[in-house]
Design goal:
232 residues, 9 helices, binds pyridoxal-5'-phosphate
Length: 232
């Protein structure tokens, strides 16, 4: 049995420590509780323990949970690879899409958001390690496309997201986190129309402290809160 209350307390404290040690304010860091594979009941218990932002990666699974739990006082972030045919539902259901990994997807989100008169906040997912198994913009692609985003007026680019190559050693992620922070600053320096760079989403259960030290202000944490689950 996991103790949700203790886990949340531990994670919040570790986030605060990491922020303070980096000279930052704990209040600037958003904890996204990743609830893929987690039951609606458990999420409800999480809400009772002050979790308020949830991350899901599968549309169908999320649909049931969002249907039951709604949006009152809580936010839902899409964090998984998204197929074009599901964009309509995602734009209607979610508050934020963190996983915009191609221009093709960005264009589709813009179109669907326009149809429901929404300006959809998104993060651009970056694949800095050029892992073939992972989606995301390469650095080169991103710079090619930066000037195009302002044409998508129903898409609101708020920052960058990354999943570094998997490793059980948190320090292995540090250089990728540093690179993403540098990339964000470079993009900011260009001052592109229609692009805000106020969020940097990086860091998961095993490496969120390193991510915060390197500039993350959104961390996405599943296992450390809900225990190990088997993801399909
Ligand atoms: C599952 C997942 C997480 C959470 O991972 P944990 O190791 O369980 O904390 C974070 N981000 C993405 C994109 C995920 O798919």
């Amino acid at each position: 049995m996991i103790n949700l209350q203790d886990n949340i307390k531990w994670v919040r404290e570790a986030i605060a420590q990491a922020a303070l040690s980096a000279g930052r304010s704990p209040g600037d860091i958003t904890l996204v509780a990743v609830t893929k594979g987690v039951s609606t009941e458990m999420i409800r218990e999480g809400i009772g323990n002050d979790l308020d932002v949830f991350g899901e990666n599968r549309v169908q699974e999320a649909e049931c949970k969002i249907g039951e739990l709604g949006h009152k006082g809580i936010q839902w972030h899409m964090i998984g690879h998204l197929q074009t045919n599901k964009v309509k539902r995602v734009v209607e259901m979610f508050d934020f899409i963190q996983s915009v990994d191609s221009m093709h997807l960005a264009v589709e989100i813009d179109k669907r958001a326009a149809a429901v008169r929404k300006r959809m906040p998104v993060l651009l997912e970056v694949n800095l390690a050029k892992e073939v198994t992972k989606s995301g913009f390469s650095r080169e692609e991103l710079f090619e496309e930066l000037d195009s985003f302002h044409l998508l007026s129903n898409l609101w680019v708020r920052g960058l997201m990354m999943v570094p190559p998997w490793s059980d050693e948190p320090e292995d992620s540090r250089r990728y986190f540093k690179d993403l922070t540098a990339l964000k600053e470079e993009i900011e320096g260009q001052g592109c129309k229609g692009i805000d760079m106020d969020f940097l989403s990086m860091g998961m259960s095993n490496d969120f402290e390193v991510a915060i030290q390197e500039g993350a202000n959104i961390v996405r944490i599943g296992t450390a809160i809900f225990g190990a689950r088997s993801y399909v």
